[in-house]
Specification:
It is built from one helix and seven strands. The strands form two sheets. A five-stranded antiparallel sheet has the order 1-6-4-5-3, covered by helices on one side. The protein has one domain. By secondary structure, the chain is mainly beta.
Length: about 100
């Protein structure tokens, strides 16, 4: 199952994700997936241009500690920084969170 999205080209998120390229997620649960960046990344000061939208189920976000995560829209919190809307490559695929999701650019 593959989710795809368009990353903003005016931020450092592409380089952050490249540093995580093809790495398994660090989450111990199945409620969302996250990748520990091991970097001291501060939350962007400029508000995200991405806003929760009707019909979008999943978002790529930056968590307040700098980690990158994939969350279902019901799990998005005010402190999450939305990076991109995520879409299924094949709408017929069933998607579920696992403990070993892979991220890539």
């Amino acid at each position: 199952m593959l989710l795809i999205g368009t990353l903003p080209n005016d931020s450092n998120v592409i380089e952050i994700i490249k540093s995580l390229n093809h790495r398994f997620s660090d989450n111990p649960n199945r409620f969302f997936m996250y990748w520990n960046t091991d970097l001291s990344i501060e939350m962007p000061l400029i508000p995200s241009l991405v806003k929760k939208s009707t019909g979008i189920k999943y978002y790529l976000i930056q968590i307040c500690n700098g980690d990158i995560a994939l969350k279902h829209y019901t799990q998005i919190r005010d402190y999450d920084y939305l990076i991109a809307e995520m879409f299924f490559e094949d709408e017929n695929d069933g998607f579920y969170f696992t403990e070993n999701g892979i991220i890539g650019v």
